[in-house]
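Example S7 (structure tokens).
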């Protein structure tokens, strides 16, 4: 069975203020039921969240080389330091 939520409960579930939830409802972004008051179904709130989800489109940047000098342990580190 679908869970029915009041406006304050739905706002808390979405982590929005009640005013923001009302604005998004008026703008047609969130489905609702008018039954002596405004009610929201849990699947509708989940669909709203899923529609606002942004997928990852790029891989994270490669790690940057430290700008601080580290202890030199090999001869080629000395060559890299001197001749870059």
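Recovered sequence:
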């Amino acid at each position: 069975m679908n869970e029915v939520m009041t406006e304050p409960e739905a706002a808390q579930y979405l982590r929005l203020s009640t005013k923001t939830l009302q604005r998004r409802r008026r703008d047609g972004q969130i489905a609702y039921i008018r039954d002596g008051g405004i009610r929201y179904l849990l699947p509708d709130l989940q669909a709203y969240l899923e529609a606002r989800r942004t997928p990852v489109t790029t891989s994270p940047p490669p790690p940057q080389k430290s700008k601080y000098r580290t202890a030199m342990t090999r001869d080629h580190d000395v060559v890299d330091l001197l001749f870059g």
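Notes on this example. The chain has a mean pLDDT of 86.
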